Amino acid sequence: MRPSKSFKDLIVWQKAHQFVLGVYKYTRRFPKEEKYGLTAQFRDAAVSVAANITEGYAKRSKLDKIRLMNIAQGSLEECKYYVILSKDLEYGENRTLEDLSEEVSRLLSAYIRSIEDNIRN
Asked: Which domain of life is it from (predicted)?
């Protein structure tokens, strides 16, 4: 496998970016009164996932990388709750976002493990 030249080469970032785009598309259908509530929070958390992966990629310290990837994991968990809440509020179900969030979660965990393994070696 060739080394990445940019954060855009990371599959985890690519999937996180797809997730952000999906969240924006999904939340467009939310009621107007949610504009500064759930819609804004959901979008901010989704952007945070991809943004923290991006920032972590640029860090030289492996511990800094892990910390930012862990922040991305926290934001992703927040988004998973927003998917549940949106469904329960009857704003619509979105199985695609559920699946994509699980995929990003697995990829983030694997990426963190690979950094941790690199620290040990």
From this structure: Bacteria
Q: What's the CA gap between 102 and 6, in Å, rounded?
A: 24
CA angle, 74 as apex, 51 and 4 as ends, to 5°? Answer: 40
Q: Is residue 60 part of a domain?
A: yes
Provide the 8-state DSSP code for 36: T
Q: Which amino acid, residue 13?
A: W
Full residue range of the structural domain in which residue 99 is found: 10-120
The DSSP call for residue 31 is -
The amino acid at residue 89 is: L
Mean pLDDT of the residues in the chain: 95
pLDDT for 1 equals 52
Strand intervals (E) in the chain: none
Q: Which two tokens stand for residue 12?
A: 């985890």
2 belongs to a structural domain: no
Query: pTM above the 0.90 mark?
Result: yes
Number of domains into which the chain is organized:
1
